[in-house]
């Protein structure tokens, strides 16, 4: 039989990152391509201890169906933590638990976009989000990133040109892939534009707690007096990525529709791990654990930056992140990065091509993304050396 | 700000069942409204033992990201078990792990249906599936259920009348809510129609292993020579519902698109519990465990049927299930069941109205669903007594 795939999925390619992830079975490859947190960031022993206790004392609830919105004590704990630490959440907001931060992004689009509606995104942006929007039949309009955040002049042009834009997707802090954190001034301007053009902001903040340098910048959600912001985050980078526990805080009216959509996607998120998260938050010291992860990533990022500074020819530009997992490198004179990346892989160093993060999948990119959370210190030194040699041969 | 909800979600109501589930906090209510497996069906001690071992020896893999298709050893174990026990899966098929059986249903629709395309369903049918189709903007066309399965004459009429029908959704075994198992003859006829009209069958079989009486009937997938069938099932009713582990077996070409869609919904399913499932399947005796669940449900179902036979006036019809979790009761002369259900709830017995399972949400129903897996034996006796008294007062 000849199958007819839906229009929205027919054109959608698997994420280049996850395809690279699958091909990394060759152990001689140095991978800067991952988006994974370091396994050192998983508090396995403490989770094991709490798990044993859940099995011993609460197994029926942990293994049975629960409500779609999430395990109530975890919802409350997450909402309280967001409020106390980050000033997030008003009385018109609701917090729900999602199957990873990814599901929050996808549900927000499903709740607000008809097929053909526009989602305005930073360009480049997180491919998982871009593909989530595409999988809902939304059209992407990319607005370039400047050093201080999304280009607000071009953003206003995009808002005027696309009256059917329903969502403005932003990763303001430790941007993936670009490594940028937008300034408060930029955020305030963007918020005013969102208010003026009546568009909902989807603020994706998976790395926000991983700041290891510089000063905190308030999230959009923390100054969201108008109910414009849906805020997504997760435990993937601070407890475990594999457990798939995320959360969303946003206006009741939208969240209630996201709950209906979640109900028919997976009924609810794994209950056992929701309980485990809750127990960890209330019985262990999550903040102290996060401090350890920050120190680890600071040391890895510092090493990668210093190796790049020492070895990379000046014609290659790269960001100096203050947190998160990624560095963003740009080749000189707008050269497409495809050839460089191919040759790097031949020399056994894997990076992610900038094209993977483009709103327009046909557009070229002069950039690529480097991850520093996963490789060993030794691999960082060796891998950057190989990339620097290649860059000198090719460009400078 | 005034929010504009997408057309496909604006009209979608939360599942009546899950809303009832939430309202059942009153402990004096006897609930026949659940869809939950009995907590006695969760092998908590064995899962605890295996969990401790995973934390001790494999915690990094269990807590890290993995591939979207599912934990490879679990995929293989599930595919092998389906093949060996049920003859399911050809060389053109692929098996993936989903976040509950629910996600398989939703992804199948997303992969095959554009907004406005038709999904043909048994009427009544599983509300979670109907709402999954609605949430993708599909239109539902209901075909009545006869005693031997979907009405094949009306099905052919529906196929002729709806050339844009992309999916035929069926729960052939221990139907939810109707409790019917369709005959092999009926299945063969339906399969021929699907072949003739080139429509993909989505076979949902969450209860298939819970047969406690009668003879096995081959699944559609087991005689699917043409690659017409996507088969969904899960571990929810045999290991744990709360862990959300399901699986789908279907033609490569469709499954590969479902994988892309899953990637942007939740990246992958909880890895720890995928490993736990795999360990349970290979180190414990799943079949022996399922035999215990069957014996439990047989005893509960027998009790409910015998109490209904003893007490219910003859004008009330009900099914005699050979497996699964549900009985389906029908009031005399097409009377709407709304008033009966309301009065039953006043007398502290909760059931699910048949309207919740209608393809047409405005259509009335003369039926309601009873669950026997969750209530205690005492509650089954008392609750059926209350329903029978009410039926006598109202109808006979």
Q: Any overview of this molecule?
A:
The structure is a homodimer of 396-residue chains. The first copy, chain A, contains 13 helices and 14 strands. Chain A is α/β, with parallel strands linked by helices and 396 residues long. Chain A has an eight-stranded mixed sheet, with helices on both faces. In chain A, strands 10-11-14-13 form a four-stranded antiparallel sheet. In chain A, a hairpin with a 7-residue loop joins strand 10 (317-318) and strand 11. The N and C termini of chain A lie far apart (55 Å). Chains A and B meet through helix 1, helix 2, helix 3, helix 5 and helix 6 of A and helix 1, helix 2, helix 3, helix 5 and helix 6 of B.
Task: Provide key terms for this protein.
homodimer; 396 residues; alpha/beta; 8-stranded mixed beta sheet; 4-stranded antiparallel beta sheet; globular
Short description:
Two copies of one chain form a homodimer. By secondary structure, the first copy, chain A, is an alpha/beta fold.
Greatest interface by residues involved = A-B, 89 and 89 residues
Poorly predicted regions of chain A = none
Q: Biggest β-sheet of chain A: count, sense, barrel?
A: 8 strands, mixed
User: N-to-C terminal Cα separation of chain A, in Å?
Assistant: 55 Å
- Indicate the structural class of chain A: alpha/beta
Radius of gyration of chain A: 21 Å
Oligomeric composition of the shown chains: homodimer
Count of discrete alpha- or pi-helical segments spanning 4 or more residues of chain A: 13
Strand content of chain A: 15-25%
What is the averaged pLDDT score of chain A?
95
> What are the secondary-structure elements of chain A, in order, as H or E?
HHEHHEHEHEEHEHEEEHHHEEHEEEH
User: Which descriptor suits the 3D outline of chain A?
Assistant: globular
Q: Determine the fraction of residues in helical runs of chain A and give it as a percent range.
A: 40-55%
Q: Widest sheet of chain A: strand order?
A: 2-9-8-7-6-3-4-5
Number of extended strands of chain A? 14
């Amino acid at each position: 039989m000849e199958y007819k795939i839906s229009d929205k999925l027919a054109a959608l390619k698997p994420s280049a990152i996850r395809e690279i992830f699958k091909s990394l079975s060759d152990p001689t490859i140095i991978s800067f391509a991952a988006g994974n947190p370091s396994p050192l960031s998983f508090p396995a022993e403490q989770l094991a201890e709490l798990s044993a206790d859940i099995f011993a004392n609460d197994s029926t609830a942990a293994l049975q169906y629960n409500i779609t919105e999430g395990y109530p004590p975890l919802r409350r704990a997450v909402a309280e933590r967001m409020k106390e630490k980050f000033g997030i959440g008003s009385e018109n907001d609701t917090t729900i638990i999602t199957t990873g931060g990814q599901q929050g992004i996808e549900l927000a689009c499903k709740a607000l976009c008809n097929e053909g509606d526009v989602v305005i995104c930073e360009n480049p942006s997180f491919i998982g989000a871009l593909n989530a929007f595409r999988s809902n039949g939304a059209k992407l309009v990319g607005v370039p990133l400047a050093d201080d955040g999304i280009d607000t002049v071009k953003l206003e042009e995009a808002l005027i040109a696309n009256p059917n834009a329903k969502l403005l997707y932003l990763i303001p802090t430790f941007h993936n892939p670009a490594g940028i954190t937008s300034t408060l001034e930029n955020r305030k301007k963007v918020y005013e534009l969102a208010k003026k053009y009546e568009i909902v902001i989807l603020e994706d903040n998976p790395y926000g707690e991983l700041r290891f340098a510089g000063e905190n910048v308030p999230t959009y959600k923390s100054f969201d007096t108008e109910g414009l912001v849906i805020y997504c985050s997760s435990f993937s980078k601070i407890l475990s990525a594999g457990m798939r526990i995320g959360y969303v805080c946003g206006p009741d009216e939208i969240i209630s529709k996201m709950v209906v959509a979640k109900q028919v996607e997976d009924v609810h998120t794994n209950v056992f791990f929701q309980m485990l998260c809750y127990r960890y938050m209330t019985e262990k010291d999550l903040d102290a654990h996060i401090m350890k992860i920050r120190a680890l990533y600071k040391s890895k990022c510092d090493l990668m930056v210093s190796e790049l500074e020492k070895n990379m020819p000046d014609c290659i530009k790269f960001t100096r992140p203050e947190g998160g997992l990624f560095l963003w490198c740009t080749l000189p004179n707008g050269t497409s990065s495809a050839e460089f990346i191919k040759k790097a892989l031949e020399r056994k160093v894997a990076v992610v091509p900038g094209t993977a993060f483009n709103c327009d999948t046909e557009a070229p990119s002069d950039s690529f993304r480097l991850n520093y959370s996963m490789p060993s210190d030794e691999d960082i030194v060796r891998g950057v050396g190989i990339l620097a040699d290649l860059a000198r041969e090719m460009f400078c």
